[in-house]
Design goal:
The complex is a heterodimer of chains A (416) and B (172). With 416 residues, chain A is mainly α. Helices cover 65% and strands 1% of the residues of chain A. In chain A, strands 1-2 form a two-stranded antiparallel sheet. Chain A is globular. The N and C termini of chain B lie far apart (76 Å). The chains are: A mainly alpha (416), B alpha+beta (172).
Chain lengths: 416, 172
């Protein structure tokens, strides 16, 4: 898909450099002349938005690390120091804290886009699995970052999540002690979480590079779900078409982001995290950050410690097997009436699990969480493999150009 | 008969295996300290015991002390609480254990205040059995600290402890 580079440096210095390190040609081939399907919609702009968010989190995070102290006696106070004394500290910290939420909003839309249009299907299996790895790294990074302010939610979130590993038979307790560096979440734990929270974003950046590389080998999927057949007819150059569209989407996204940072900076957080960590008192109701809530609901839905932990991790790991669980020959849900229905029920189930994860674990909430957990796994393990056998897809357009023309013709008829 | 086609191992094969073995040992030797550094060090392990004055705990009261960074509950049980804990049949519980096996003196119950589910601190004098209730995921413990209901798999842990005198307790 990437094709040969047509880059010709204009200056003598450029030619001299290009013959020694052809990096300008690589950038030109990947982000200027790179052919993108001409029917991409706005759901294809989240890759760019996510790249921007990663840079945003790294820049604000590096700056915060200049003022933060990773010690149980000083961590909480140093965060308040950032908020009150450090020049512009408040906006940098609110950008970083809300940036994490924005990162997850974007990644969930990006993943649902892939799920709807079948972007995980051949030949994009490796691309998809790299994405699942990035998502796992994001979850680990977000979790450890939330521990650093050393509030009550930080401490008890860290306690509950690290205790998940104690469910592993035989070696569970030894692993938990190893993770803590002591008998409970304490100073060694805070220190190593800070170290890893600083490291993981760079590992994410490395896997993102592989993700983009894999994308540029297979080319992008598109709303029609048919591969590019004729580069002339089916595609447009990345610059200016995709660059400008991604830029516009990013600006809209940043308005949404700014609204949270400037008007509602603590809406997505939890008030209890403004109480310093106390190892002797658990808050009455502990909840993780909103982006983990569906998985937290799955954990609590299973009436067994080990079973709950296995189901929770299984809910993420199962995503890596999607390319082989989906047996349909058609990629895009636009041409799969039954899949489209089950997909939207799946989205509703995820939102429902998110709500239930924020509620106390008793009575009707637990029963509802069990039903939705059943659907979550049933969607992947039963519905997806069977649909490929029983569903009759609608006729798929012969090419991307045909899909675009058909759409334009129907619009023209509707307007005449 | 045709000659066997298996070739004799050469000196090069021997060198290859020896080389690989040394490299594997080397990688292991480098990995060991890098992994082991995350475990608690000797100074953390040394903080293993705490002395507690229990004379101030009235009957029915629970004192929470910090031991190894975790809360430990010292509960001065009432006659009624002791009776309830001793009379119930342990065989039907998720983690069957008699009350007598969990205490040294019936009026004093000493347990680690960490829920065996996911590590929250349970609340005293609450729950269906008036023992402890964990607010995180709803585990219910009785007046002997045994799990009776909810997701926790085990009873509250009884730490090693000794009575130094009638009013002094050493935990650890």
């Amino acid at each position: 898909m990437s094709g040969h580079s047509t880059y010709v440096p204009k200056s003598a210095l450029g030619r001299w450099f290009e013959s020694r390190l052809p990096i300008m040609g690589l950038i030109h081939g990947s982000f200027v002349v790179y052919p993108v399907p001409r029917n991409l919609n706005y759901f294809w702009t989240f890759g760019g938005i996510l790249s921007f968010m990663l840079v945003c989190q790294i820049v604000t995070g590096v700056v915060l690390a200049m003022h933060y102290t990773a010690h149980v006696d000083y961590a909480f106070a140093s965060v308040e120091y950032i908020m009150r004394d450090v020049n512009w500290g408040w906006v940098i910290r609110y950008t970083h804290a809300n940036g994490a939420s924005m990162f997850f909003i974007a990644v969930y839309l990006h993943m649902l886009r892939g799920l709807y249009y079948g972007s995980y299907k051949a030949p994009r299996e490796v691309l998809w699995i790299l994405g699942v790895i990035i998502y796992l790294l994001m979850m680990a990074t977000g979790f450890m970052g939330y521990v650093l302010p050393w509030g009550q939610m930080s401490f008890w979130g860290a306690t509950v999540i690290t205790n998940l590993f104690s469910a592993i038979p035989l070696v569970g307790d030894a692993i938990t002690t190893w993770l803590w560096g002591g008998y409970s979440v304490d100073n060694p734990t805070l220190n190593r979480f800070f170290s890893l929270h600083y490291l993981l974003p760079f590992m994410i950046a490395a896997v993102v590079a592989l993700h983009v590389w894999a994308l540029h080998v297979t080319g992008q999927n598109n709303p029609a779900g048919v591969e590019v057949k004729n580069v002339e007819r089916d595609t447009l150059p990345f610059t200016p078409y995709a660059t400008v569209k991604d830029g516009f989407a990013l600006v809209c996204f940043l308005i949404f982001f700014s609204w949270f940072v400037f008007y509602s900076p603590n809406y997505l957080g939890h008030a209890d995290n403004y109480i310093e960590a106390n190892p002797l008192v658990t808050p009455a109701h502990i909840v993780p950050e909103w982006y983990y809530l569906p998985f937290y609901a799955i954990l609590r839905a299973i009436p067994s410690k080990l079973g709950g932990v296995v189901a929770m991790f299984g809910a993420i790991v199962i995503l890596a097997f999607l390319p082989w669980l989906d047996t349909s020959r058609v990629k895009s849900a636009a041409f799969r009436p039954l899949y489209k229905f089950f997909f939207w029920v799946f989205v509703a189930a995820c939102l429902g699990l998110g709500y239930l994860g924020s509620q106390p674990p008793d009575g009707g909430y637990v029963i509802a969480a069990r039903l939705l957990t059943l659907y979550y796994f049933g969607f992947f393990i039963i519905i997806m493999p069977l649909l490929g056998l029983f569903e009759t897809p609608k006729p798929v357009p012969a090419s991307i150009a045909d899909a675009v023309l058909a759409k334009n013709n129907s619009h023209a008829q509707a307007h005449s | 008969m045709a000659a066997a086609t298996t070739t004799e191992p050469t000196r090069r094969d021997m060198l290859f295996i020896a080389n690989g073995a040394v490299a594997a040992v080397g990688v292991g030797a480098i990995a060991w300290p890098l992994i082991s550094q995350m475990n608690p060090d000797a100074s953390t392990l040394a903080l293993a015991s705490t002395e507690v004055d229990i004379s101030s705990i009235a009957e029915g009261g629970i004192l929470t002390v910090k031991w190894r960074g975790k809360p430990v509950f010292v509960r001065h049980r009432t006659k009624k609480e002791i009776e309830e804990a001793a009379s119930v049949k342990a065989a039907d519980m998720p983690d069957p254990q008699s009350d007598a096996a969990r205490v040294k003196k019936p009026e004093w119950l000493v347990v680690v205040g960490v829920c065996t589910h996911l590590g929250c601190v349970p609340l005293g004098h609450s729950g269906d059995y008036d023992g402890w209730f964990c607010p995180c995921h709803g585990s219910v413990y009785d007046t002997s600290g045994r799990i009776r209901k909810g997701p926790a798999p085990r009873n509250l842990e009884v730490p090693a402890y000794t009575f130094i005198s009638d009013t002094k307790l050493q935990i650890g």
